[in-house]
Amino acid sequence: MPDTNASGPTSAGGLLVEVAVALPLFETFTYRVPRADAGLTLGAQVIVPFGPRKVTGFVVGFTDQAPRQLKDIEEIVAGEPALDESIMELCRWAAAYYLAPFGEILRAALPQGERASAAKRVRLTPQGERLLAQESAGAMGFASLALDDADRALLKRLRVARSLSVRALERTGAAGRLAALQASALVEVGDEVQGRVGRRKVRPAKEQALIAPEGPAPAPTLPVLTQHQAEALRVLDDARRGGYATFLLHGITGSGKTEVYLRLIAEVRQAGKGALVLVPEIALTPQLAARFRARFGDDVAVLHSGLAPTERRAAWRRLRAGQVGIALGARSAVFAPVRDLAVVVVDEEHDGSFKQEDGVRYHARDLAVVRAQKAGALAILGSATPSLETYHNVELGRFRRLMLPTRANPVAAARPLPPLEIVDLRQHPPGRDGLLSPRLVEAMTANLAAGEQTILFLNRRGFSPLVLCRGCGNIVRCNQCAVSMTYHQASNKLVCHYCGDTTAPPSVCPKCRRPSLERMGTGTERVESVVRERFPTARVARLDRDTAGVGRASKLDAVLASVAKGDVDILVGTQMVTKGHDFAGVTLVGVLLPDQGMHLPDFRAAERTFQILEQVAGRAGRGERPGRVIVQTYSPDYPAIVALLTHDYEGFVRDELKRRQEARYPPFARMVALRLDGPDARSVEAAAGQICEAARAAGGGAVRVLGPSEAPIAILRGRTRWQVWLSGTDRGALVVAARGAAAVPLPRGIRLAVDVDPQSVL
Ligand code: ADP
Ligand code: ZN
């Protein structure tokens, strides 16, 4: 709460603004801007007094209702608004829809580095003053220090704030209250700059490549569109002139969806308007970014997680200024400040990574549609395997569907998608390696002899996912989490795939102390070693988070590039290999064991299995030569597998939708997951009980309350986890139930996360 002893010499009047503070609070607060002509716009980032603290906030509205106690805005951080009005509108919608604090979603919408939460104000120390004076006099001031980006940016801000306020003071005299405040920003409490400079004496400024410079884009020769592409483009180009609409571009893998986006965006740019393109994981699809750059050169800002905060901010600024017209990025790019937005593309719209799984748990695809709606723009959701939600929206007439039923490459188009071949592992067990069935080995051998490439997919990294004691049956578990540790051979470590904790592999069972531990099961690391042994002449590469970990984008690019060049015969990997790669030389895809994904306690398990297998199958036979897809499974009768045999998406979806409707699952109902965690198991369980009752009481008959139940991963990072799921068709009632639950006062240390439209059951 803002404290009650409002202070400061305020002149009567002034502008009243509504501020959302960057704290997990649902209310906004009213502050006064002492000078109404200060040019404060909606979206501006400010620092306001908040209780004993000073915190970052955003101007979200203007008002003439003064509360009894009124405090003044302390400082305007950025002259230009941090967020423009349309993005603020989007955030306002998201806050209401996701039951999230407005300030928090605003913060999520900002490029990293502008997230100055609960900012402490700092001033220049005498040392800082001295360096600044040196710098103004033309000598090496701050520039003589090796600083990291954050510090450099901070110093620069202090310098700019100082020069602004000096000039403002000169212009307006002492009457300029804001100017005076800005001046005070430099002389108020705190000596953090000194402290930070002292601590990080010589730390070289981070050198991070922004957007790999590719020189001027050579005029690309554009392929002649297929009839289906041309028709889709015509419909979309017409539609964009008519304002908001959402289209599903439903095209089989390799049907040329990307080419349609590129052409449409070229039209949009011709018309002087902007475009936003969201992709699941930008680092995984360098080919896609390269195609955009080849087509649009500097007119596209590629927003990936490897960008340093300053680079990201610079990209944001260029977009906002209209210097760059196209933004391409993952989930959080849905907030990118593209000017005059005319089209929003969500590629692979079914992909689970569009859902933010902590903080404000938004779904970027859904926000993209809302953003398009608010901007009067066109939204295009592209997929070979649309989510059931999107498919259902087509059935309801909310979205229109365009089909690309054939592959775009004229040679590949002449043949149907390769049929799936199923190896029933119950009848045809794998050979002595316990992994590769004779049929798959045969196919791999032939492929290798023909000089063609193979992809092997197993959705589990590491060497073996279980370390089990043959003596007592104990499984080695993470100390922090209720999950088994995975053995990694390269590092010779046990790793928890949920919290990242690593330990040395014990030589005896931690429980019975006998030396009878055995590594069981298979991950990609073991697949790689089996394959190398079996095919000693083959050039083998592996792609998973261990070989291409986060922040090691260059390694990932290198693997993908060598596969594209044909320097790899067999690529082994997790779902990283299933994403939109376009390798013409891949003619065989082997799926090793999809069974674990099928049997997750998740109502979307079948949908996910279908999507991931259809995607990986789509990697085969994209070039001149036909492809083969071999799936080894113990569950050949699993409906998604049966449908995959003939790539029967429609058939699968029809049955699956029926099942969902009967079970009252999305898209026929909406869900909200209430996720609780805390250090003490009993109090979390008790709190979950209370939350459950409160939800029942508030929701009345219109809301089904499921639970409370222990989460499938019952302990994570030492915190016990419980869940309560709400479901119903009446969104209003669901919101009331969720609010009722969220209002329950919880004991210290227990956290409650409200997850609207949850995607994860874990
Ligand atoms: P999708 O996005 O549907 O998977 P892409 O747009 O990546 O498909 O196209 C698949 C491949 O076909 C790419 O190599 C692309 O360059 C090529 N392609 C796309 N459209 C055409 C076309 N009209 N003629 C020839 N090749 C095309
Ligand atoms: Zn763990």
The coarse overall form would be: globular
Structural class: alpha/beta
Helix fraction, binned, reads 25-40%
The oligomerization state is single chain
Which strand order does the major sheet show?
A: 9-10-8-11-12-7-13
So what's the CATH class of the largest domain?
Answer: Alpha Beta
Helix tally? 22
Return residue spans where pLDDT drops below 50 for at least 5 consecutive residues: 1-12, 113-121, 164-217
What is CATH's topology name of the largest domain? Rossmann fold
Sheet with most strands: 7 strands, parallel
* Estimated share of beta-strand residues: 15-25%
Integer tally of domains: 5
Bound molecules: adenosine-5'-diphosphate, zinc ion
CATH architecture of the largest domain: 3-Layer(aba) Sandwich
Q: What's the CATH H-level superfamily name of the largest domain?
A: P-loop containing nucleotide triphosphate hydrolases
Number of DSSP strand runs: 28
Mean pLDDT: 84
What Rg is obtained from the alpha carbons, in whole angstroms?
A: 28 Å
Compute the separation of the termini in Å: 35 Å
Quick overview of this protein structure:
With 762 residues, the chain is of the alpha/beta class. Helices cover 34% and strands 20% of the residues. It is built from 22 helices and 28 strands.
Q: Any overview of this molecule?
A:
The structure is a single chain. The chain has 762 residues and is α/β, with parallel strands linked by helices. Helix content is 34%, strand content 20%. The protein contains 22 helices and 28 strands. The chain has a 7-stranded parallel β-sheet with strand order 9-10-8-11-12-7-13, sandwiched between helices. Strand 3 and strand 4 form a beta hairpin. Helix 7 runs parallel beside helix 8 and helix 18 runs parallel beside helix 19. It starts with 14 loop residues before the first strand and ends in a 6-residue tail after the last strand. The structure holds adenosine-5'-diphosphate and zinc ion. Zinc ion binds next to loops. The site of adenosine-5'-diphosphate has 17 residues, from helix 8.
